[in-house]
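Hi support team,

I submitted a single chain yesterday and got back a structure, but I'm not sure I'm reading the token output correctly. Could someone confirm the output below corresponds to the sequence I sent? I've pasted both exactly as they appear in my results page.

Thanks,
R.
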Amino acid sequence: MADVFPIELLLVEDNPADVRLAREALREAQVEVNLTSAEDGVVALEMLRQQAPFEETPRPDIILLDLNLPSVDGHTLLAEIKRDERLRSIPVVVLTTSSDPLDIFNAYNAGASFYVTKPPDLDDYMDTMQQIEQFCFRLAKLPPRKPPSSS
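Hi R., thanks for writing in. Yes, this is the structure output for that exact sequence:
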């Protein structure tokens, strides 16, 4: 991404406390981030596909995805994102409490960019979010919001 700011981040998380913590951690980020959250996979898909009432929701540059979600779980949502031609280029970072090797394998197999286990400790959680911010928003190159035109 050619240094386009602010970064549009979609956090798919059903725990309001984790959403607040993510907002707090990103507030201290050195990069401007617009965080939009979805409490389940159904709402996330509606946002990503800009279906009513989310027609004006910006396309995210990156998605942070919890696996343990109501209605449509994170594994199913990840598969849907990677199956959709318009969405598959969006990097998806799985951020979840599970450290189960099967969850990790399935997430990468479905197209996750990275898999991060949420630490239970508040300070460690904040540190993890800052490391995600540093790597994903400053070091790594995110895909362009629109496909580049060929010359």
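A quick pointer for reading it: Residues 122-139 form the longest helix (18 residues). Let us know if anything else looks off.

Best,
Support desk
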